[in-house]
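Now for our target.
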Amino acid sequence: MDMLGDDTVRKARIDAGLTLRVAGRQDCAEGIAAFELVAIDGADLPAFTAGSHIDVHLPGGMTRQYSLRNDPTERHRYCIGVLREPSGRGGSAHMHDRLNIGDLIETSLPRNAFALDEKAPFSLLIAGGIGITPILSMAHRLTALGRDFAFHYCARSISRMAFRDEMLGSAFADKLHFHLDDGPAEQKLDLAALLASRPSGAHLYACGPGGFLGAIIAAAKEAWPSEAVHREYFANAVHGPASGDRPFRVTLAGDGRSFEVPPGQSIVAVLAQNGVEIQVSCEQGICGTCVTRVLSGVPDHRDLVLTDKQHADRMTLCCSRALTDALVLDL
């Protein structure tokens, strides 16, 4: 997972950070590089849970988010995979071209907006391309817990299938199903058949490109309740300003202050301009860092992280707006 932050509101970040050393680097598939990050002094790193990600702060004010792919029991390292994005804005190119073994980088502490339900009797894991990274960590965790699961990994070709050999040598190799776009028809993923029914109590976890996730959500709609379908996007294509955006007011329940949010500006940006610091990360509505409870008013939800149930009383302040003239926030 790789996402760009926005300089306008980056100064509102308040989360603690880490300085890590690049201990390993490997080209693990076409266009994908794997990095191993460790503490400078070799000490244990803060614990993380399956599905977590870290922010990586790069020169020039760039911030990228990358999912941790390794076993959550490993405290000595964080492992990430980075897809080079030819049409990106420079973050992945910097990681590929300029980040080498021995270099130091600044990161956030791990956060999780794609958490695993560890009590589910069965989990269905589906990854597309670089979306393998958080799903791989989930497979490690489910194996350690002794939970039943199936793991489907889709890629354009075998040359683009990162971490394949690592997975074939893992304790969950018997759970794996590989699907290649350029492979024989019989091995391609049949979403309709796979998701036609839901095993009792099962949860579905999917990560990959937007179109890939859209197809999974559509195929799961009939048999899988929304609360059992978990997905993580790379980017939010609809989070930005829209031509029909209108101004609205936000009021902070804690002290009664009220501010107008004009078209073209986010709630986070307006609050930052008025000295109210909101912790943010992706600024695209896909990480959940800025989720805030709504006490009054109707949000115009533009995130890709909250469920329908969560939308009833919560919103992401980085990209969502209002359908009513005013919102009262639990701040």
Observations:
- The chain has three domains: 7-108, 122-232, 248-329.
- The mean pLDDT is 88.
